[in-house]
Structures are given as structure tokens and as C-alpha cells.
Amino acid sequence: xxxxxxxxxxxxxxxxxxxxxxxxxxxxxxxxxxxxxxxxxxxxxxxxxxxxxxxxxxxxxxxxxxxxxxxxxxxxxxxxxxxxxxxxxxxxxxxxxxxxxxxxxxxxxxxxxxxxxxxxxxxxxxxxxxxxxxxxxxxxxxxxxxxxxxxxxxxxxxxxxxxxxxxxxxxxxxxxxxxxxxxxxxxxxxxxxxxxxxxxxxxxxxxxxxxxxxxxxxxxxxxxxxxxxxxxxxxxxxxxxxxxxxxxxxxxxxxx
Length: 256
What we know:
Layout: H1 3-15, E1 22-23, H2 24-29, H3 34-42, E2 46-50, E3 53-56, H4 63-72, E4 79-80, H5 82-88, E5 101-106, H6 114-118, E6 124-129, E7 139-144, E8 147-152, H7 154-164, H8 171-179, H9 186-195, H10 199-212, E9 232-233, E10 239-241, E11 246-248, H11 250-254
Parallel strand pairs: 5-6, 9-11
Antiparallel strand pairs: 1-3, 2-3, 4-5, 7-8, 10-11
Helix pairs in contact: 5-7, 7-10
């Protein structure tokens, strides 16, 4: 390879961390043409993991390395969420030594690239695209390998769990997760609850937080949170909670 091509390669290798995906479109936008990418692959500097995506040759890239690319190179809002986000921050009672599932949320209308959806990441990755919360609210950064990714902070993560409940996420389990969140920042919780578009999520969140006896609940201004009107049956044949006008599982209401 010419000196110029080698120099560009060295610049790419020095500026991008190991363990991440490199999107072909992003590379092209940054001066690495499709032809140049092919030359790098032929020289075994990079290898393809699907149409439109490369990794360093022999690099070990997990799903978070793909999330990094989608966030920083493609500008997508997709992020680890729910129980996955809590586990990544050490907030989950259900930590797995070797996680078998990962939950991602992204904004409604976004399209996750085919290379991401078709790739076997070694675990079951589920993606939910919804606008029930604003894409930029309630996120925090975590370090992973040599890079950082945005994940849901604990308050947003619980709301994402509640969005999936009760069909995909048992409410008893969400309550046990909520019990451990005794140091949430009221201002952050307030902002998320005001922005949340799901009446079910807001009522359940306040119900679980109140049931857990969290002190930060006292600092919320419920007058500014739209809780809708009318009764909501979260489950059939449950127990009705008049304060929040919801019907919840008997096992949950019985927990102390």
C-alpha cells in the first residue's frame, strides 16, 4: 500500500477503539472510500461481518461494540435498556454471570441495520422501538472495554421494564428491582415522568415506588404529572389499587 493509504489506515486504527464495529457508510463519509475499504480487507486489516459493517481482523466484538457504532457513527438512539441497563450498572438483583438476553430500546421510526439484526452476538438481543419516552432523556454513559456507550439510567430503565410489563416483564420482578433504587434523583425522575407518554407506565412507576417506601417520592410534584383518567386493568383477576386506579397482580399487592 502507498504511504498515504498506510497513513490513513494508521490514523483510523489509532482513533477508533478496538472491540467496535466500523460502519462502511461512516468510513466513506470520513474519507475511506468503498474501494479503500476493500483494499484494507484484502490486506487482512479488517473483515466484514455483514453488508455495511467491518471489524478489525480477528477482533472480538460483542453487541455493545455494535451499539457503540449505531450511536456514534449512525446517530441512532438505540441503547441498552430495562433489566440489561440495570445489570450493566450493577443495579439488578438478577445479575447473570453470562447473560443470555439483552434488551435494547430505540426511537420509533428508526431502522436498525441488517448487519446488526442478522449477526449472532452470542445472546438473544431484543429491540423495542417506541417514543413513549424522549430519546435523549434519562441516559447515562458506561465504560466497556476501551469505549463508552449510552444506556438507560436506573429511573428510565425501570420505566422501560414497566413498558414491557406484564406481557414480557413480570411486575413482581420489576418491584424487586424498584426496591433497590433508593437513591434516585427526584428532579431526574420528575422530568421523565412529565415527558412519559404512557399512562400505564406512570401509574405503575408511582405505585411501585410508593410501595417500596422510597424517600425521594416526597419530592415529586404529582400535580405536574398527567396520570390520565379512568381505571386501568394491568392484569385480569388482580387486585384493584384505588389510589392509582390500577388492577395489579395479587402476588404483587401482597408483597411487603
